[in-house]
Amino acid sequence: MASILIGLIVMIVWALVSRRLADARVTGPSLMVIAGIAIGFTTSDEIGHTLNTVVAERVVELILALLLFVDAMEVKGGYFGGERGSTLRLLLIGIPLSLVLAVGFGALLLPGLSFAVLLIIACVIVPTDFTPAPAILRDRRLPRRIRHLLNVESGYNDGVIAPVFIFALALAEDNGHDSALEALGDALPAAGLAVLVGTPIGIAAAWLTSRSIERDLASASAIRMSLVLVPLLSYATATWIDANGFVAAFICGLAYRATRSPSEVELSLAEDLSTLTSLAMWFVFGLTTVLLASFGVDWRVIVFAIAGLTIVRMLPVYLSLLRSDLTARDRLLVGALGPRGTASIVFGLLAYNALDGVAADDVLYAMAATVIGSVLLHGVGAAWLSDRLGRRASVVDDSSAGTAG
């Protein structure tokens, strides 16, 4: 209880001085991690028990459903933000290759883990999230197109990985000879049902919202609240019929935005709530790092995390964008600038709750090492990469844009 109270106090303090902290380049996630670490030293014995509860699992699931919905809603300029070819290459070629590479490195470095657990870890460390490094998307040394493509990709990749993650969890829980086929047989119908749930709910919610606004039936605040409730409805409906609730929430967001584009004001409450819940996850992440400190340092997991942040991301991205209209420099930038954050934390906590024993600890350790490494690499190294690789490309991008105008 004391941890929750202190976490709330820190979030309030952050909210009251957030502008000054931003000017000092202190992000909300970094502040929450520091607070979590500080509190974790006094509550380390309680952390594992608290995380491994049904209540904690349900809370994290609802948070992920909201985050997936907001991610889908933030993709502007059509389904793929005007970057259909490059986005599809990253999602349909880059992500599968990244998962395969992650499983391969995991098998070499962590040979005691099953394929299912290795796939879970891959799903935890692969999705990108710019919450811990938002400056990348505002860095003018980077070409506008690269920043936009990274933003669009980050809006989709956790939604694409979610069904693979659920499949891997089901596979880990079934250890029979036919478990892979059985898990796949459960996962595919669950994902299909999720699409059938999320699509009509998203379309219906968008259509009803438009009619309500036209006839002045609801206040602006009520419309904002509805955009928080819609993904929760989609998730709850899907889980009620044994469908994939995460896929349903993500598809719901895509369907809603395809039917009507909400204004920034309408989406503000959902975005603010997703920011608050993300901060809570970063606080929990800080607590978790203290728990993992008691395990000691495992060099194999550290090496795995480094590989996950470099070659596991950069090589598949580079290969997936071959023969596209992006230059080699651009392909390197897209691959190098892929921070890990809230999505990895949420997937890691869900896996920790679902697994038992050494497997659960290894997943949590890999998540923590990857996220900490990303904070260091993309928080410090991104500026160097932007300066080395981005500035020249940005000049070319801006000059071509000026010529086009």
- In the CATH hierarchy, the architecture is Up-down Bundle
Distance between the termini: 58 Å
Number of strands: 0
Domains counted in the coordinates: how many?
A: 1
Mean of residue pLDDT values: 82
How much of the polypeptide forms β-strand, as a percent range? under 5%
Described by the principal axes of the CA atoms, the overall outline is globular
Can you count the helices? 16
Structure classification: mainly alpha
Residue stretches low in confidence (pLDDT < 50, at least 5 long) are: 398-405
CATH class: Mainly Alpha
The percent of residues in helical segments reads over 70%
Reconstruct the topology from this structure.
Layout: H1 2-16, H2 18-23, H3 28-51, H4 54-73, H5 84-109, H6 115-125, H7 144-173, H8 179-214, H9 220-240, H10 245-259, H11 264-293, H12 299-309, H13 311-320, H14 328-336, H15 342-354, H16 357-404
Can you give me a brief rundown of this structure?
By secondary structure, this protein is mainly alpha-helical.
Descriptive report:
Helix 12 runs parallel beside helix 13. The chain has one domain: Up-down Bundle (Na+/H+ antiporter like fold). With 405 residues, it is an all-alpha fold. It has helices spanning 2-16, 18-23, 28-51, 54-73, 84-109, 115-125, 144-173, 179-214, 220-240, 245-259, 264-293, 299-309, 311-320, 328-336, 342-354, 357-404.
